[in-house]
Amino acid sequence: LPSPTPEYLSRLNPEQRRAIETTEGPLLILAGAGTGKTRVLTTRFAHILLTGRAYPSQILAVTFTNKAAREMRERVSAILGEPAEGLWLGTFHAICARMLRRHAEYVGLTSSFNILDTDDQIRLLKQVMEPWKIDTKRWPPNQLMGIIQRWKDRGLTPDRVTPAEDSDFANGHALAIYRAYQERLIALNTCDFGDLMLHMTEILRNQPNVLAQYHRIFRYILVDEYQDTNTVQYLWLRLLAKREHGPSNIACVGDDDQSIYSWRGAEVENILRFEKDFPGAEVVRLERNYRSTAQILAAAAGLIAHNEGRLGKTLRPGRDDAQGEKVQIIGVRDSDEEARIVGGAIERLRGDGHPLSEIAILMRAGFQTRPFEERLMMIGIPYRVVGGLRFYERSEIRDCLAYLRVLSQPADDLAFERIINVPKRGVGAVAVQKLHAQARALPGPLTAAVIWQLQEGLLKGKSKDALDGLMAAFQRAKVTLETEGHVVAAEQLLEDSGYLQMWRDDRSVEAPGRLDNIRELLRALGEFGTLQGFLEHVALVMDTESETSDDKVSLMTLHGAKGLEFDTVFLPGWEEGVFPSQRSLDEGGNRALEEERRLAYVGLTRARRRAIVLHAASRRIYANWQFSMPSRFIEEIPSEYVQLTGQAFETRRQAAAAPSMFASGPLTSTRPSGFRAPRPKIHDVKPEPTVAIGATVFHHRFGEGTVIGADGPQLHINFENGGVKRVMANFVEIRS
Ligand code: ATP
Ligand code: MG
């Protein structure tokens, strides 16, 4: 008698069931967004347990984020009816850390090794570099760190880096320093993040007994978001899955259209390699999307069709509800209006009983959260910034605010203490203690103590010069504040104090994002009449910590949203230069652009019921307005799935008042066929200057100079008095 289908399988479609019930042998599930890949993986986990094929501890399940691991653990416990413990379930790094503790001695560590954070990594690398006497201005340690990380992503220990793969960093010293750095880490009984994968893969490669042990433990291997694995992760998986005797019970799920981490070494080719490495692998395709409405799905499919070299997948609507709403595309005047419209729409949704936890605002880059955060705070809608800090809590923003607070109020000791040695000026803890003592003796604030000590000649050497320079920077900014206003003064202060240069010199992957945040801060400053008004606003905004309810709107980057879903998704900032990002456009060619398009596809397919894309006709750059073009991705969405709402540039008389959730907001019209994204007709917009090589520019601090090169938004300028410097394009005036 055939046993009845268990309840947990009965709700799935035949392909999904096949993917779950084919437990033995290699399996690749290749399917588009929202087709139930993650759900299949989770159910497969439960199925293996419930059919007695393995104990929970015999299944290795790799997820891409801790959040995904948590969700999978919860789903497995729900199906099992008891808490799931002792599972090998987590991110690649979490699982490797746990393994490495058991076998640390093979790489010369003990099981209590520490894991370094990024700051410590760089500090250590700098120490290691010292004997080479490398000009760190020319060859910044952060850049070398990046090279080392890429090697680690590719599973290359120093012994495995071939001369052909060596880098020309510091005229060929990269590999030698890499080797020394690794030795130093071991001597300190520490490893960095990349070492977790690297060491463990090396151990599995070199220690047959360890490998055999894991072959005995792991009967089944499950991998989510397989398209974003890098080489070392791939090698690690292959070692664990490929056994001499018996089948490789490895199931990977992925979607080549959602590969968005190539900048971190991910290799979408790993999908193609799978069938070669595991001959006879079963390939299952899932074609029904259960997440999004037919309209959203068709819009996303039309967009991603513009990429070449796809593996090709069919995606059909699987939800039985109606067609749903078209993707809304709203043109707004500027970022204020963008935030206002999104805020208003969220208020209306909340009024209709829509849970806030089912709403997300997804952006291309972290700095874009700021206007939305302020708007949501103002109208009292709780939100969380997922995978990052709230804008005004980010460390570079706090640094800048500290500078501005001192400028506005020199007696603000807390602020002054924060920046007295940022960037590093050689003012150590002892010097600060002495300043405190002096301040008490005066009595007065720290800044007064500094001035006193300078006047009395009590300071010597490096700290004298440093504090002299810092106080002079504040003094100059104070004058500028009176003459040219607070925005110029703020920018000048951050420049003169060396703060901006500190981030420009920083070659870590986070540095460009931090500079973007600072520019966003200066932009926000420009929205206020005075420095004091701005600082007061920030203080109030920082104080309104939203209540601890779980019902909050999620703000996050598109990268962070992978695998997640929400009823309503807002996608702001779809403009050329924002999304696709300027960096991807500067790179030229299709590679970077296609990755941006995949990111757009990920964004649209997060939405269950409603996707709203916004683009602004202009954005403020300090006191100026920068004119922006709608993103090409908007044009690429087939017009029949789109409802256009453009109040910034649609002529109002052509607007047919179609009912919309934005009924009280902008006017609505359906896009005519043959649509090209309209060019905004805004008269009060200063078009962004494109700066040509050879142009003469003026910088308020360095004077006149000639542009000799560009690197994204940064210009390389040869200044008449000051030599070659890298400056943000918006910080210069074009003279000819
Ligand atoms: P992504 O590519 O974005 O990671 P995915 O392929 O992993 O998507 P899931 O998140 O597993 O997709 O599923 C998307 C949604 O569809 C979930 O809400 C899931 O519960 C639902 N779903 C999956 N399969 C079915 C089904 N057979 N019937 C009803 N709903 C389903
Ligand atoms: Mg998924």
TrEMBL record:
Coiled coil: none annotated. Keywords: ATP-binding, DNA-binding, Helicase, Hydrolase, Isomerase, Nucleotide-binding. Pfam families: PcrA_UvrD_tudor, UvrD-helicase, UvrD_C. Residues 294-563 form the UvrD-like helicase C-terminal domain. The keyword Nucleotide-binding applies. It comes from the Bacteria. Gene3D superfamilies: 1.10.10.160, P-loop containing nucleotide triphosphate hydrolases, PCRA, domain 4. Residues 10-293 form the UvrD-like helicase ATP-binding domain. It catalyses: ATP + H2O = ADP + phosphate + H(+); Couples ATP hydrolysis with the unwinding of duplex DNA by translocating in the 3'-5' direction. Its EC number is 5.6.2.4. Belongs to the helicase family. UvrD subfamily. PANTHER family: ATP-DEPENDENT DNA HELICASE SRS2, UVRD / RECB / PCRA DNA HELICASE FAMILY MEMBER. This is DNA 3'-5' helicase.
